[in-house]
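Run log // design_07
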């Protein structure tokens, strides 16, 4: 449960065992960790177990989890129906070179729910799903290029990453391309095949797509880009995306790896986008590695091998493994329309509570998000795209303080990313999020001396 005594005292949490493991980790991993997304300032928290909406770390700290392994665990930790189904399966084999009925059952569920998906292929991660969706668009159109939203995250495929790590240094220089490489040594040719567009900016969309249209296979778009601000799409923007894609024969690829959790039918259906291909992942694996590419039958035919070698070969040792398929089916079956509605109601309550506290304190913050997702911005005006959501150094420092405050009060709040809810959370958990944020805003109103006193300095 939530720890109000921690909120009142601000005394923080114990880290001694986590620090011990971090020292060991540094002996075997670069920086001591195996994912760049893990917060390790001053040291990562090493988790011992999860229970519903909470995780318990190796030091015994019980923390409300608003990360849920980066939005994967829509039912929280240790969801019993999934645990029981997987435990039963483990005795009968975890992976085979041949197909199993489990992949058909999960495929049928997803095709029934998601309007844009007529045929589907399973892979092992969201990165793979986006990568093969892009490759499928290329194979179908015989074009190499892609267009993507500035600042959005689409996994670790070179073409999907390019344009993700942009910064204010290039925004006012017309001679510099916003197709910024994601890592040192990326082939320069990749940048030449990526067109970066601004979210919700129709004029920018039309200008950039028209210039690159002959080489574009697809427009890759997250219906509500998380890393780019978790900002709602303008209906007119999606209408413009569809119109220009149709005009130039470009496919639309919806990256719903994260945002599929926005409704029973996914995010594209929620916002009126009609993609040709959909990349899915996270919640459809029930807590196990998974990814999927789905879409129009004629486009998905690029994977078909009925007449020999497919236009796009796709395999994968663990693709469609029965553990992920069974766990995903059970988790998704439990996400009925009523379950999605209940989760959204809790999200609405939390977002409204946060906004009320912002107004009550007259604080320069805003809140974005929808359904079971929310993000807090250190900006008085709600951002409309990635550039407006971009954090200046002092804003990034403030958000770091906010996450540390939540942690010291027993809540894991992702820093600079989407916070997410699970069906294991209660109204009391939601109210604790709001009260913790209110307490943080109160600390900002205090003098430096009072703040130091509150933290025992």
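design_07 sequence
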């Amino acid at each position: 449960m939530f720890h109000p005594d921690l909120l009142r005292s601000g005394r923080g949490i114990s880290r001694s065992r986590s620090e011990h493991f971090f020292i060991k980790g540094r002996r075997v991993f670069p920086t001591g960790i195996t994912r760049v997304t893990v917060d390790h300032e001053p040291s990562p928290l090493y988790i011992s177990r999860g229970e519903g909406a909470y995780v318990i770390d190796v030091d015994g700290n019980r923390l409300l989890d608003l990360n849920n392994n980066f939005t994967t665990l829509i039912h929280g930790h240790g969801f019993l129906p999934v645990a029981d189904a997987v435990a039963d399966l483990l005795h009968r084999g975890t992976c085979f070179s041949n197909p199993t009925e489990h992949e058909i059952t999960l495929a049928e569920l997803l095709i029934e729910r998601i309007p844009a998906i007529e045929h589907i292929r399973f892979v092992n991660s969201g990165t793979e799903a986006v990568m093969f969706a892009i490759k499928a668009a290329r194979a179908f159109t015989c074009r190499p290029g892609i267009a993507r939203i500035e600042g959005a995250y689409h996994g670790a495929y070179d073409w999907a990453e390019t344009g993700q790590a942009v910064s204010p240094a290039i925004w006012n220089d017309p001679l510099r391309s916003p197709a910024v490489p994601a890592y040192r040594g990326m082939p320069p040719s990749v940048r030449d095949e990526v067109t970066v567009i601004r979210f919700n900016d129709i004029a920018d969309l039309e200008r950039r797509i028209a210039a690159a249209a002959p080489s574009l296979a697809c427009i890759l778009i997250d219906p509500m880009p998380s890393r780019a601000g978790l900002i709602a799409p303008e209906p007119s923007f999606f209408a413009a995306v569809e119109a220009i894609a149709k005009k130039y024969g470009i496919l639309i690829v919806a990256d719903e790896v994260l945002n599929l959790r926005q409704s029973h039918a996914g995010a594209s259906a929620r916002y009126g986008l009609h993609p040709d291909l959909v990349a899915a992942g996270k919640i459809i694996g029930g807590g196990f590695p998974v990814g999927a590419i789905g879409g129009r039958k004629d486009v998905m035919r690029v994977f078909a091998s009925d007449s020999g070698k497919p236009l796009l070969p796709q395999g994968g040792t663990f693709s469609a493994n029965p553990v992920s398929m069974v766990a995903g089916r059970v988790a998704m079956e439990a996400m009925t329309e009523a379950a999605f509605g209940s989760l959204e109601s809790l999200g609405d309550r939390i977002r409204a509570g946060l906004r009320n506290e912002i107004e009550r304190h007259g604080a320069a913050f805003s809140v974005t998000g929808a359904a079971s997702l929310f993000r807090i911005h250190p900006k008085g005006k709600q951002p409309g795209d990635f550039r407006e959501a971009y954090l200046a150094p002092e804003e990034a420092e403030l958000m770091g303080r906010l996450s540390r405050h939540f942690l010291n009060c027993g809540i894991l709040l992702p820093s600079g990313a989407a916070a997410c809810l699970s069906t294991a959370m209660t109204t009391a958990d939601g109210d604790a999020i709001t009260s913790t944020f209110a307490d943080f805003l109160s600390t900002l109103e205090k003098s430096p001396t009072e703040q130091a006193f509150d933290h025992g300095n």
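The two ends are 28 Å apart (CA to CA).
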